[in-house]
TrEMBL record, chains A, B:
Recorded GO MF terms: acetate-CoA ligase (ADP-forming) activity; ATP binding; metal ion binding
Organism: Asanoa ferruginea
Keywords annotated in UniProt: ATP-binding, Nucleotide-binding
Residue span(s) of domain ATP-grasp: 481-517
Keyword Nucleotide-binding: yes
SUPFAM superfamilies named in the record: Glutathione synthetase ATP-binding domain-like, NAD(P)-binding Rossmann-fold domains, Succinyl-CoA synthetase domains
Protein name per Swiss-Prot or TrEMBL: Acyl-CoA synthetase (NDP forming)
Taxon lineage: Bacteria, Bacillati, Actinomycetota, Actinomycetes, Micromonosporales
InterPro entries: ATP-grasp, ATP_grasp_subdomain_1, CoA-bd, Ligase_CoA_dom, NAD(P)-bd_dom_sf, Succ_CoA_lig_flav_dom, Succinyl-CoA_synth-like
Membrane-spanning ranges: none
PROSITE patterns recorded: ATP_GRASP
């Protein structure tokens, strides 16, 4: 549910608890920051004994201050914070920013934080923090916190970038980069421990903020994960890119990973899947984050991945071409017609292919602008990169290049900007980068934003699966197979047998050749113990296999029990599975199967449930996707049937999440088109709640 | 052969041809550059009519100038250059730098360049260029060329970085980066079209230059490729890293390079193999090149991949940890003993794990230095990263951190350097980067340098293969198989048959089941035409297969001819092959086979020949290498036998390079250990010289 943060971020009156005549106190600093940013509302220092702080009348408690306070900034020792929040509640204050640290982020601080949350809930006060640096509303001149006004340093320009960060230090460093490069900022929020309000809440607020054009977020986890996808889609509809860095790849440890799917689906891939579902762009580096934000603040998003490069350096153009193509974009040559048009502006010893090379001798801003306009008008490209070194080029020249096209345009300079130009770099009409790899990464990421925005709405949710599962379904193969069949996921014909005679009869009924597999409760990796016998082509072979399996069972001290199945026809082998993520809940996975599954990590993941259209997109994303098309005279595979299985399993994962933690369908044989898929084996892991 | 470039790079006298009273002429600029750099030797302007240029006595020709000139800088129109070189020869001048463009790099200029080369050879003059910007010998104050003295801009500091670049523009931009960051430079050479002296020659000279510590090279192709490996190994023995960017890897990049310099872009993986053999580090970005050079100029190379991170920001430390581990380095936790030692310097609410977190409140230079020293003394790490924001930290503090360890140490700042510190960034005792990904890349690349330096000498070359091949060996399967057998590469038992009866007899002799394959001259992809029949288990099946193959042969208008072989036992399927690279000659490859070979690019390449030890290393580099170890109850594979095949094939590729352009052993079945490999099929492509 959307929270109205207006009184928090645009407060008409603010009290600062902890401001005092001690100039180095955190609260004094917070008050000074608000004043130095020319806060225009009412300001009330709160101090038990001082009558005045920094020339302002002080009050002993929030309860004693004038009524109608919108926001209280709290900077007192940790044990005293809850009392201040009670005061806020009594005075009808809706929001508090808690700068104080020493809560959940330190060992032994969890209880204090739980207590704080309880008091805040009871008092009807919404919290930022604790352990927050506060926030900066640059658009309206509210610097409520510590360090957010960058005291003693330059202030950021006012502009369209909203910064939301769980880490205060990393958030400030992003603000610092914006400031040093002249990139305009709308707001910065340090969400701290997120005992109440979360990063997702502030991202949502930024979507509604008319001053914000691009949102960058730094996260170490996601709280309020259930709203992430909804908020992300809202940002996409509003045309506001959300760029997110998520740190801590090994965070969701502690969960016993028993099955194959579990080990392949690292928690980090789940974040990838979640950000993707939300239409947010994940970045792995602060420079990439910043480059992409700078690019997208110009409001131009590529409609595809066709890139034209205009250069005056052959070497630089080639380097750009290499890295841009390596990043998955396409530098198609100009058409005959376009080349003829370009020749008017390009010297004979230049090139009208792509890169279009005006050469060092042909360089003039007019020629560049004409080439950019001609490329743009051709409709053959989705984005343009101009190599114009930041050497003698003026801001006006750069603006004239930007005005020559409405396409997304990126500047590349192999020369570093002059010291004079550097503070203006983020404000140039053409966003600039100074390395080919950064150019490639920013274009590829921006194209992903466009792709996410153009993606159709996901469509109807799949038909639900009855929530019939119990942990007992994981106990035996037969119970597992029956549960899966009830969800529309029938395994290949199978019989459970408990004697040699039963095994032979089953084989005869099912038809040779058959497979015979040990079936012991809780045993997932049957082949590891020598419990799998394949391609048994007659009764003698079945009898011998039974004896072998029985011996293994004796060795393990389990009953003589096995599953007999007809051998599967050949096809493309895949694995389909699902797991329960601690943060995002059920997740479905499809991946390459067979021997290569162990050596080549080739998986696609989605938050469950997904419909068949989404499942098909997921299948097509695998590296092995070309195998489904049928190479070298082999028939095309039934990917539609595979998509149905993936979608059904995703629905089952949701329906059964209270009982079942993991499901592995392995292997799944994808047969030729029209013949469906064969689910050869399956395993469940019951949910054990030890969180 | 090493060329003595002393008189070129440290000339006692220089003539400039093309210097005139026209201040904008290229030659005038070159003369002015030399003078502005305070060249201390003799300087002679050469002009047909002027008696004096820039206050120096001018001469009508090099022939008329005083004797003993070491170097002539040539800046006259292209058609006049050859005449000047003749003059140089007549005057006994050993070296000329040709700044003039309009030779091989422009269409129609190849003839002019060939003529120039011929004249230079005849005259005994060695050339830099044409189309060169000249060179800067910063150590000795010789700026011979155009732009190399960075006229009107700051000069670089004098230091240990040598820059060699085929592209003048890219080379100057590297020089610009060094200058703006205070990184010291020893020399810069723009090699231009390399009609004579090449990038490899100048890299070699830099190895011998006592002022040079690190060499960076920008290449669009490699000329003098036969000496690359030898020169690279010499650099490694001298302890001087060579960092190389080779552009033109992709189709678009290659297109740009060709339209730029007319150079031929070889297969990109072959360049990787060549640089690897030479112990050079390839980079794909100018920032990576620069970061790595800055790091290595401190003279510290990691002895392994164990990294310790010391931080005062939890978020920044986590981000570093994520990216460094993602780049393949290891952040192992500190041992119990080390943790106990670290506790003396780390606050209780910090962390003595790795990252070691001193927290924002615990920050002091002394604590950082103590932690760095303790980590260093422990012997548990090969490199240290310190997160100390470039905010208020002084150069002296940074120097004291560097002095606390002899390990390679890298600084990371999530804050950008202040404008005051930026020009000194490259000169800090601890090299700094400002993004986690850059930190990870520079550490990984530096570790690769150490690895290359520690690699044992390659050992003896493999036993040579007799050079018995003729193009006819590629004509038929039988001829191919026989040639391969002569090189110690016998195929699985095979018989060539020309009738149904012969096929049946062959199958009976070889033992069922067999394979029967159409054998037509020049037909490589037999299965594409339906010419392959596998698993024939009796005479009827062989007869039917023969009829089918005969029908295909009739359809293709080729004789009835087939190969019969016993079916291969199962094992790991690979492809082994070799090709003739235009630049580097014979190259050997091993890669994943089977259906995945088509969708997953998993190959290792080396310049041929290689011995069995090298071949084994190559096999172990494949992504599928874990399959050779025998997972899930399967036996370990005979990788030694595979290595023998790869080594033998590499020797054959060298011996047969005049006749054979490509050899494909596909598939090669690697059997369980001790059972060798099975070469199932092979194809040769005869060499056709159309270069």
């Amino acid at each position: 549910m959307t929270i109205d943060l207006d009184r928090l971020l645009r407060p008409r009156s603010i009290a600062v608890v902890g401001a005092s005549q001690n100039p180095t106190a955190l609260g004094t600093n917070a008050l000074a920051t608000l004043m130095s940013y020319d806060y225009t509302g009412d300001l009330y220092p709160i101090h038990p004994t001082h009558a005045e702080v920094k020339g302002l009348r002080a009050y002993p408690s929030v309860r004693d201050a004038p009524a109608g306070i919108d926001l209280v900034v709290v900077a007192v020792a940790a044990p005293r914070v809850a009392g201040v929040i009670e005061d806020c509640g009594a005075a009808g204050v809706p929001f508090a920013v808690v700068l104080t640290s020493g809560f959940g982020e330190v060992s032994g601080g969890a209880a204090l934080q739980a207590d704080l949350v309880e008091v805040a809930r009871r008092s009807g006060v919404r919290l930022v923090g604790p352990n927050s640096l506060g926030f900066l509303n640059q658009s309206d001149g509210v610097a409520a916190g510590f360090g957010v006004g960058m005291p003693g340093r330059s202030r950021p320009q006012t502009g369209g970038l909203a910064i939301v960060s769980q880490s205060g230090g990393m958030g400030l460093s992003i603000l610092n980069r914006a400031t040093l490069s002249g990139l305009g900022v709308s707001s910065f929020v340090s969400t701290g421990n997120e005992a109440d309000l979360t990063l997702v809440d502030f991202v949502e607020d930024a979507i509604d903020d008319p001053n914000t054009k691009v949102i960058v977020a730094y996260a170490e986890t996601i709280r309020g994960a259930d709203r992430l996808v909804e908020v992300g889609r809202r940002a996409a509809r509003a045309g506001k890119p959300v760029i997110i860095a998520k740190i801590g790849a090994t965070e969701a440890g502690g969960r016993a990973v028993q099955s194959h799917t579990g080990s392949m689906a690292g928690a980090d891939l789940v974040f990838d899947a979640a950000f993707r579902a939300a239409g947010m762009v994940r970045v792995h580096d602060i420079e990439d984050m910043f480059d992409l934000a700078t690019f997208l603040l110009r409001g131009r998003v590529p409609a595809g991945n066709r890139v034209a490069v205009v250069t005056q350096s052959g070497g630089g153009g080639a380097w750009l071409a290499d890295t841009i193509e390596r990043a998955g974009m396409v530098l198609a040559p100009a058409s005959e017609e376009l080349r003829a048009q370009l020749k008017a502006f390009v010297p004979d010893f230049g090139s009208v292919l792509n890169p279009v090379d005006l050469t060092a001798s042909g360089i003039s801003v007019e020629a560049f602008a004409s080439v950019v306009k001609t490329l743009s008008d051709s409709g053959e490209y989705d984005a343009i990169v101009v190599l114009m070194p930041l050497l003698d080029v003026s801001e006006e020249s750069i603006a004239s290049i930007a005005a020559a096209t409405t396409l997304p345009i990126l500047g590349f300079s192999h020369w570093l900007p002059t010291p004079a130009l550097r503070p203006r770099l983020g404000a140039l009409e053409v966003p600039y980068v100074t390395s080919p790899a950064r150019a490639a990464r920013v274009l590829a990421a921006a194209a992903r934003v466009g792709e996410a925005w153009r993606a159709p709405e996901p469509g109807p949710r799949p038909e639900p699966v009855p929530a019939t599962a119990t942990p007992a379904a994981a106990a035996s193969d037969a119970a597992t197979f029956e549960l899966l069949a009830s969800a529309g996921l029938p395994l290949a014909p199978w019989r459970q047998v408990t004697s040699s005679a039963e095994a032979v009869t089953a084989a005869q009924d099912l038809g040779f050749p058959v497979a015979l597999k040990l079936s012991a409760d809780g045993l997932i990796h049957k082949s590891d113990v020598g419990g799998v016998h394949l391609g048994l082509s007659d009764t003698d072979a079945v009898g011998a296999a039974w004896e072998a399996v029985a011996a293994v069972a004796d060795g393990m001290g389990v009953p003589h029990r096995a599953i007999v199945q007809p051998m599967a026809p050949s096809g493309v082998e895949v694995i389909v599975g699902c797991t329960l993520d601690l943060i995002f809940g059920p997740v479905v996975m499809v991946g390459a199967g067979g021997i290569y599954a162990e050596v080549v990590r080739d998986v696609a993941l989605r938050l469950a449930p997904i419909n068949e259209t989404e499942a098909l997109a997921m299948v097509r994303e695998l590296n092995i996707a070309p195998l489904f098309a049928g190479a070298r005279g082999k028939p095309a595979a039934d990917v539609e049937a595979l998509a149905t299985v993936v979608s059904r399993l995703s629905a089952a994962a949701v329906a059964w999440q209270d009982s079942i933690a993991e499901i592995d369908l392995n292997p799944v044989i994808v047969l030729p088109h029209g013949q469906g898929v064969r689910l050869v084996d399956a395993a469940l892991v019951a949910r054990v709640d030890n969180r």
